Amino acid sequence: MIGQAIADGFLTGAILALGAIGVSLGSQILKFANFSHSELLTWGAYLALTFTAFASAGVPIGPLSFGWPLLVAVIIAGLLTGMLAVIVDRLIFRRLRSKNANNLTMVFASFGIALVLRNLVLLLWGPEAQYYTSELQIAIEVLPNIRLLPDQAFVLGLTIVLVIALHAMLKYSRLGMSMRAMAESPSLSRVCGVKIETVVRWTWVFSGMLAAMAGIFMGLTVQLRPEMGFNILLAIFTAAILGGSGSLFGAVLGGLVVGLAENLSVLIIPASFKAAVPFMILILVLYFRPQGFLGVKEKR
């Protein structure tokens, strides 16, 4: 039973990690906590659903419950969600930056945007739960007393590939080096010739794409609901803070810790209290190590 809870925790943690990476990138480069990030997760999931609704169902790939249309939908929804994030920045956040708005103003603006995006989902797709596929799956025993659905194994594998690809981009590409430089010092980056608006634009694109991936994976392993992003908002921010702001692998580690804590907690407490676990972790992290596991303590 504990082994199955750990396996489920890794799956939850993988999804949270993708969302936490986007939050971490935004907080380190854009310098504010973007609470509308959770709604980008929801939009990505529903945009993929829309594409699969218009495309043919396709033959399921091997033991998976879906065919090639959903894989194409992952790419399209990721790009469209990245574009949506850029549009939101152009309409709201860039105007606030041009007026030298403080961080608190940006945070309140992100709350307002989150409400607008969530209600647009309700208006366009309705409040009912929806699914990508109606195919039934049989869980496979991957280890003694540990079973995973093929879709869950696919989500774990693809998440690992995405994290490795993002790490390579941040470490070796010119854009990645510019993003890391701006995260360290925006003013110094500007002096060194870094195009600030270009970095900001790509930060929104990557954050939106990662959020879309997290939303699609969550919808694939559970179901799609308009409040799905909001429901894991606290867990995503806890994972980002726990790992350390701006740390890619820290966000992954934070996501895994939160996912494991949530799923292991149901062995001790009623499942209805599961949502409170990220909140308790967040309080402990802020009290004992506010810079996170892999973060660096700021010098005063």
Structure, explained:
The protein is mainly alpha-helical. It has a single domain (2-288), classed as ABC transporter involved in vitamin B12 uptake, BtuC (Orthogonal Bundle). The chain is 70% helix and 2% strand. It has 12 helices and 2 strands; from the N terminus they run H-H-H-H-E-E-H-H-H-H-H-H-H-H. The chain has helices spanning 2-29, 37-54, 68-98, 103-125, 150-172, 174-184, 186-191, 196-221, 228-231, 233-243, 248-265, 277-288, and strands at residues 140-143, 146-148. It has a two-stranded antiparallel ribbon with strand order 1-2. It starts with a helix and ends in a 12-residue tail after the last helix. The mean pLDDT is 87.
Radius of gyration: 19 Å
**Neighbour order of strands in the largest sheet:** 1-2
The tally of strands reads 2
- How much helical structure, as a percent, in the residues? over 70%
Q: Output the number of helix runs.
A: 12
State the shape.
globular
The tally of domains stands at: 1
Largest β sheet strand count, sense and barrel closure: 2 strands, antiparallel
- Structural class, please? mainly alpha
What is the quaternary state of this protein? single chain
Helix-strand pattern: HHHHEEHHHHHHHH
What is the correct CATH architecture?
A: Orthogonal Bundle
